[in-house]
């Protein structure tokens, strides 16, 4: 069934940018629903951004609207998360996920079937 492999995490100062990539197998990339989640120590995993193929607009958490952009590259089976104007509170492990069953479930971690191993993002003030 394939896998999801994240990359692009790192350490940046507040105000900086990072672009996360999620390389997916053809099987997983063909899923209608793909998203990015994050989890900080001691906190629950939260939805950051997600896309449903054919839907008019992606989902974004209120905390990242206007700063983060999710996109899909069909030629390379890759999901991206462009993160600009990063803040210390964006520090977390970021995960790529696929396979939620319906558009209204895009923000719910429990709705996803497939997960990557995560990539760490650290933003210093």
Brief digest:
The protein is mainly beta. The protein is built from one helix and eleven strands; from the N terminus they run E-E-E-H-E-E-E-E-E-E-E-E. The radius of gyration is 13 Å and the shape is globular.
How would you characterize this protein structure?
There is one protein chain. The chain is mainly β. Helix content is 3%, strand content 46%. It is built from one helix and eleven strands. It has one helix spanning 26-29; strands at residues 4-7, 10-13, 18-24, 33-39, 46-52, 59-60, 68-73, 78-83, 92-98, 114-115, 119-124. Strands 2, 4, 5, 6, 9, 10 and 11 form a seven-stranded mixed beta sheet that branches. The protein has a four-stranded antiparallel beta sheet with strand order 1-3-8-7. A hairpin with a 6-residue loop joins strand 4 (33-39) and strand 5 (46-52). The longest helix has 4 residues, at 26-29. The chain is globular and about 40 Å long. The model has no long low-confidence stretch (mean pLDDT 95).
